[in-house]
Specification:
Layout lengths: L28 E8 L13 H18 L4 E11 L21 E7 L2 H8 L2 H12 L3 E14 L8 E9 L2 H19 L4 E6 L9 E7 L6 H6 L3 H11 L2 E10 L1
Antiparallel strand pairs: 1-3, 1-4, 2-3, 2-8, 4-6, 5-7, 5-8, 6-7
């Protein structure tokens, strides 16, 4: 993948939906720990292994402890609910890209990006990651900054949370096509929040950006992905045209 500036290639009717409304990116830094514990089909996450239940308990205790320190002021654990439609067809042309199947996520927000990077180096974080790797199929630990923001994501109230793991040949084009299509989600699903996470070290992560946002419930997002006729031509087709693919997973608070 490259970071070179390239022109966005639009397919279909242009400007059919309002332009996304953005606010200034947060100055926060983030640690994202994404874990594949159980192998489950797209709608089978309601079945949880003993290993997963134990891991969720460990992560919630870790998040609660971290949230009371000066290091991470918001630490939240999520567990997958469903893998919705929307996986990019462009991935068929990039079979080497690992498909995200993370059924557990820990997201920690820090005051600054440097604070997140420093905490990633601590023995506490290293020990947590090492222990989880012993009992999981796949683990991704990254530090990140906020590249784009519609609004802050409310972690205090349960709902349906998206982590959308993007792969693109170009980071710059990925951000452009995210901007262009995000207006659809605001207009068609009432989305009023989103934090786009930009991994600190792109060489260590198979995904260019990870979009994180929240709706009140599945009814607010799933019907739009399943039945809205404009989803594919306006969103998915523009992703594919720009060598970009999304790998979405929907979660709830653990």
């Amino acid at each position: 993948m490259t970071n070179q500036s390239e022109a966005l290639q639009i397919v279909g009717p242009k400007n059919k939906f309002p332009e996304v409304s953005l606010i200034e990116p947060a100055q926060s830094g983030y640690l994202l720990l994404a874990i594949e514990v159980d192998h489950r089909p797209s709608i089978g996450f309601f079945v949880e292994s003993k290993a997963k239940k134990k891991l969720l308990g460990t992560l919630k205790a870790f998040a609660q402890k971290l949230g009371t320190t000066d290091a991470g002021f918001d630490a939240t654990v999520f567990k997958a609910v469903i893998i919705p439609p929307g996986r990019g067809a462009f991935l068929n042309k990039r079979p080497e890209v690992k498909i995200a199947k993370f059924d557990v996520v820990l997201l920690v927000e820090f005051v600054t990006v440097d604070a997140a990077k420093e905490y990633q180096k601590t023995p506490e974080w290293a020990a947590l990651v090492a222990d989880i790797k012993e009992n999981s199929h796949n683990v991704m630990s990254i530090a990140a900054s906020n590249a784009r923001r519609i609004g802050p994501v409310d972690h205090a109230t349960n709902g349906i949370f998206l982590f959308n793991y993007f792969y693109a040949d170009s980071l710059d084009v990925n951000l452009q096509v995210w901007n262009y299509t995000a207006g659809w989600f605001q207009d068609q699903t009432g989305l009023d929040n989103s934090t786009v996470l930009l991994p600190d070290d792109a060489t260590q992560v198979p995904y260019t950006i990870i979009n994180h946002c929240r709706w009140d419930g599945l009814r607010n997002i799933l019907p739009a992905l399943l039945f809205n006729r404009s989803f594919k031509p306006f969103v998915l087709d523009n992703f594919e045209q720009n060598n970009t693919a999304a790998i979405p997973i929907l979660y709830k608070l653990a």
